[in-house]
Amino acid sequence: NREKSKNLFTFCVFALSEGSVISYYLSEFDVPQGQEASVDSAMSSMDKLVDKEQRRYMQFSMHTKPNEIGQIQSPGFPNSAYPPNTFIQWQLRADPKHIIKLDFDTMNLEEDCSNDFIKIYDSLRTLVCDALCWSHAVMCGYHSPSQPLTFLSSGNVMLVTMASDKENDYPGFRAKVSQVPRGTVTCGGNLMGEKGTFTSPNFPSYYPPRNLCQWSIQVPNGNAVKLTFKTFLLSEPGQKDGEDCLKDYVQVNGKKFCGEKPEGTVTETSQTNTMEVVFFSDASYVDRGFNASYEAINAKDPCPKQFQCRNQRCIKTELQCDGWNDCGDMSDELDCKCKPQDISCKNGLCKPMFWKCDGVDDCGDQTDELNCGCKSGLVTCKNNECVSEKHLCDGIDNCGDGSDELNCGRSTGVLCSDLTYKCKNNKCIDTVNPECDGTPDCEDGSDEENCDCGRSLFKTSRIVGGENTQDGEFPWQVSLHVKGAGHVCGASIISPQWLVTAAHCVQDDPRTRYSQPGTWEAYLGLHIQGNTAKNVVKRNLKQVIAHPNYNAYTYDNDIALMELDSPVTYSDYIRPICLPSPQHDFPAGSTVWITGWGATREGGFAAKVLQKAEVRIINYSVCNDLMKAQLTSRMLCAGVLTGGVDACQGDSGGPLSSPSGSRMFLAGVVSWGDGCARRNKPGIYTTVTKFRGWVKEKTGV
Ligand code: ARG
């Protein structure tokens, strides 16, 4: 009955247990020609792990009883940490015609799954293998007890294994074990009526392996079925999103879906009043599954009183031609007649007027940024005054802020102002952003000193709306872990021994003393959470210095410094970002990068792989209006006002990296936002230029 699965090879161990007599049988299925050798080698490597790693071996077994809840836990739990260099197996059995339910209430292991881990198998034996691994889950690190973490077996056996490496100080796990009659966790069936919902079995916890469910939806005659997935989590290692879905999948009207999809993005509409939905899970990895709703729609008018996008989505009519891409395919923003209060872009788009002249090309064809400055023959000062071109570089401050006297090529005799760069010899030069640009501008060359920063292996250079970085692309990015609890905040490397982060990351709360260096461990050179590859350096902290004027209500002065307990050696994966001088200019509209392991959507889960996203600096007064005047002069805004791209929970303290020449400068520190990636709600960052002196004073950097 397994021919539906495309598994090359299936090796099953079932326990047929009745009373005290337990028998097993092995069944082997066909191995496709040419694959025999790899299967053989996988088989021979099985169980070797234990000897190879020289771990102590322990084995437990448990037979669950009806209506009783058993418990398994790591040795010593909850009084002491689990033992090092140990490999433990728990063989769990249930009565015939029952399945096993394993429900973790605590899960707190070392972060790195390649050192310490728990694996769950839908069998009684382990198979150590690569391509053929069919444990249904691998877990490590910390899981919040508020999120259910239960697993179901497909038959009446389950194997839980736990491996640990060297000495560590983590509590371990505890889980309840019970049996439920097979068939209680049902799925599929006939769904009738105008609307309804259904989920994968055991949702929102993990669905069982080897499961096949089938739903037949029927809505009243003359209607069509519209199906929307709210949650969709069917990821499996080795199965890429958007590919053939050979492993776990959902099939709607013959179309397969798999992987992880953002909320509400999978919708399907039927031609008739019925729809068939299939859910399949194979023997290996399981995920949390899906939560779907269906409704009857009028096939002739699929979007009653709404606008229908080209991609079949329905959106509120008011959202048409409002400057936002609500459909996702832009179809709601094409062929628009703009309202008088809107900017009519040449390309036919309409955009809200407050985006005019904000330094960002919102139309996409620059229409909104034309005719912004002064009339021809005049130049625009930094303070938006207009002065005659003739006054440029004439030695007189005509603008009133000195901006008509910048970039005139004068390296001596320039009056110092807020806009001029001050060399080490205390003389000022009029070059904008002269530091580390490869040309000595100061007489004493001090603008090119301490310039081993801001470069990565890469020439170019989940965050919401982001994408995976390459390993080493942002080598100044640090992951700050609270010991035993995992990633909490980001930080940036500024020297071999100092990091910059956000002050709000290091404020004590009743449960955790975040202000204490001993609370933290810093991961440098990290790419994937839990994957401490050879490039990763873990450091304890010697000191945490929050800015003394940090204001927990306004987030003003949201910056802190951390000193590592010993300096790190730079590598391709670990290097500092450049600190900007106090006068460094990060103009509105310029491209900057945000990076972090924070949530990949508002209220969502943290990212495993370091995410990056490109955003732009947003004009200060536009931003202050959008944020209801909550900005101080020590904050700057960056984002994408159409929404969809932003930093989010867990990115705090991380860098806002600004490219200048071939280097990156630390323009900001991730500080706060109103939700994440909402439209017209950019991310707010601590302005690093304002703290250059403070950083120097505290760290010498
Ligand atoms: N304060 C958040 C944290 O602690 C980061 C907020 C950034 N939010 C935003 N929408 N840009 O991780």
Automatic annotation (TrEMBL):
Residues that hold Ca(2+) 1 according to the record:
110, 116, 144
Q: Name all Peptidase S1 domain ranges.
A: 463-700
Protein name, per record: ST14 transmembrane serine protease matriptase a
* Annotated binding of Ca(2+) 3, by residue: 248, 282, 284
Q: In which organism is this protein found?
A: Gasterosteus aculeatus aculeatus (three-spined stickleback)
Ranges for domain CUB come to 60-180, 187-297
Q: Which GO terms describe its cellular component?
A: extracellular region
Provide the alphabetized UniProt keywords: Calcium, Disulfide bond, Hydrolase, Hydroxylation, Metal-binding, Protease, Serine protease
Free-text description of this protein's post-translational modifications in UniProt:
The iron and 2-oxoglutarate dependent 3-hydroxylation of aspartate and asparagine is (R) stereospecific within EGF domains.
SMART domains linked to this entry: CUB, LDLa, Tryp_SPc
Q: Which positions bear (3R)-3-hydroxyasparagine?
A: 168
Cysteine pairings via disulfide bonds: 113-133, 187-213, 245-258, 303-338, 309-327, 309-357, 321-336, 338-350, 345-363, 357-372, 363-423, 374-386, 381-399, 393-408, 408-442, 416-428, 436-451, 453-578, 623-637, 648-676
GO-annotated biological processes = complement activation; fertilization; proteolysis
Please name the catalytic residues of this protein.
504 (charge relay system), 558 (charge relay system), 652 (charge relay system)
Q: Which residues bind Ca(2+) 2?
A: 157, 168, 172
GO terms, molecular function: metal ion binding; serine-type endopeptidase activity
